[in-house]
Amino acid sequence: QVQLVESGGDLVQAGGSLRLSCAASGRVFSINKMGWYRQAPGKQRELVATITDGGSTVYADSVKGRFTISRDNAKNTMNLQMNSLKPEDTAVYYCNAKRREGAVNYEHWGRGTQVTVSS
């Protein structure tokens, strides 16, 4: 199993910055991809950014140039630096980890951290 714990969510004014962190524990050696997803009220959960264990990244178009995902494999943490925040970034942000052991794929989610951007 893998446990994921997010932190860093807060209330911030538009144009401000926040840094989210995700701490992973458990069978972290088998994680090959981590990512951030978000879900706004009344909307489906959507991808924000992902990063592989090799450092390859993918961003949603809506956050490109504003958000930066990073990963510290030695510390088993993942971060999301969010700059130039907009009210539409308001959502619960979830940490996600995908791993593979043998022929079996696993996916894990954190409980989420609330980000609220006021206009």
In short:
With 119 residues, the protein is mainly beta. The chain is 0% helix and 61% strand.
Outline the fold blueprint.
Layout: E1 2-7, E2 11-13, E3 18-26, E4 31-39, E5 46-52, E6 57-59, E7 67-72, E8 77-82, E9 91-101, E10 104-109, E11 113-118
Parallel strand pairs: 2-11
Antiparallel strand pairs: 1-3, 3-8, 4-5, 4-9, 5-6, 7-8, 9-10, 9-11
Task: Please name the defining characteristics of this protein.
mainly beta; seven-stranded mixed beta sheet; four-stranded antiparallel beta sheet; 11 strands; 61% strand
Structure in words:
The protein has no helices and 11 strands. The protein has 119 residues and is mainly β. Strands 2, 4, 5, 6, 9, 10 and 11 form a 7-stranded mixed beta sheet that branches. A 4-stranded antiparallel beta sheet has the order 1-3-8-7, with no helix packed on it. 30% of the residues are buried. The mean pLDDT is 96.
**Main sheet record:** 7 strands, mixed
Please tell me what the overall shape is: elongated
Mean pLDDT across the residues is 96
Question: Helical content, roughly?
Answer: under 10%
Portion in strands: over 45%
Written as H for each helix and E for each strand, in order along the chain, the element string is EEEEEEEEEEE
Alpha carbon gyration radius: 14 Å
Number of helices: 0
Low-confidence stretches: none
**Distance, first to last CA:** 40 Å
DSSP E strands, number: 11
SS-based structural class? mainly beta
